[in-house]
Amino acid sequence: MTTIVSIPRRRLVQGLAAAIALPSFAALAQAPSRQFRIGNQKGTLNILKGRGTLEKRLAPLGVSVKWTEFNAGPVQLEALNVGSIDFGDVGEAPPIFAQAAGAPLAYVAATVPRPGAEAVLVPKGSAIRTAADLKGKKVALNKGSNVHYFIVKLAEKAGLSYADLNLVFLPPPDARAAFEKGSIDAWVIWDPFLAAAQQSLDAHILADASGVVGNRGYYFSSLDYVAKNADVLAIATEELNKIDVWGAANKGELATELSALWGLPKPVVEVSVGRAAYGIGPITKAILGEQQKIADTFFELKLIPKKINVLDAASANLA
User: Fold this and answer.
1) CA 103: distance to chain centroid?
2) CA-to-CA distance for 55 and 49, rounded, in angstroms?
3) Where does 115-208 sit in CATH, by number?
4) Which of 25, 99, 144, 188 has the fewest Cβ atoms within 10 Å of its own Cβ atom?
């Protein structure tokens, strides 16, 4: 005999309502949180990673942070192009090449100009006394880097053409070895390689970028990520600037951290930290105008295959 249990109407309605609501709660619990995948070189982003403050600020927004370390800006930009990262740091020149190659690049933030952080080095006792003396001499540099643009503009200021330069394209470790052996006449390089060569090779600065080029650093994302995550990128810019402001006021502590990070003696890093300029802020039209000049120069020199409009990589309405 079957027993029929009577359920009060009110309890039946409540049970049905709960059953209907359950999928919504489950869907909410399983909803994917946003990701912020950062490609970092050994520098300010590494310090930010160590602080953990970015993760704390983004957690309430449901954003998880993933870090991947790279050894150079162009490699970071390749990772952006294939969708492996959402954010990274780079010098002036690599974004120009990336945009010319069709990468979905968006400029997010920039450092203040840092002209003292790149220079042309010559050996102690070199007969090269001025930039004009570089004509026909073997000058090593990293092709397509920020110093590539610097040497072009320095030569121009000295009355030389690009064709007057006998450029030897070498990455920093190979260029240092060539400089030490005396197989090149000059080396165009940036900190901390610059400071290390001054300290350990007794190299002489022929000219730095002061009055020639700005030498900014840039933070980038993709146009798609910017469109969907402007809040995340604004917080990242704020946190990076906090690190820079702290570094400007605590250069000794900053040198200690960077010494461990770079594997360089602290006295070398102190030289680099001492002549650095500090401050990170949003992109402006004026800043992208500086990038446009680099892009136009590289096109004229046939270093990029086509003209580009840097404003196409603007991340938002610009001041």
Assistant:
1) 15
2) 8
3) 3.40.190.10
4) 25
**Single-letter amino acid, residue 184:** I
Q: Which amino acid is at 153?
A: K
Q: What topology is assigned to 34-113+216-313 in CATH?
A: D-Maltodextrin-Binding Protein; domain 2 (3.40.190)
- The reported pLDDT for the residue numbered 71 is 76
At 319 the pLDDT is 67
Q: How far apart are CA 6 and CA 223, in angstroms?
A: 61
Residue ranges per domain, the chain?
A: 34-113+216-313, 115-208
Cβ partners under 8 Å of residue 316, min gap 6: 226, 230, 282, 283
Q: Give the pLDDT means over successive 10-residue stretches in the chain (319 positions).
A: 43 42 42 83 91 96 93 82 91 91 93 96 95 97 89 96 95 95 96 94 95 94 94 96 96 96 94 95 94 94 93 80
Rounded Cα distance, 58 and 4, in Å: 55
Tell me the CA distances in angstroms from 21 to 10, 18, 25, 307, one per residue in order.
17, 5, 7, 56
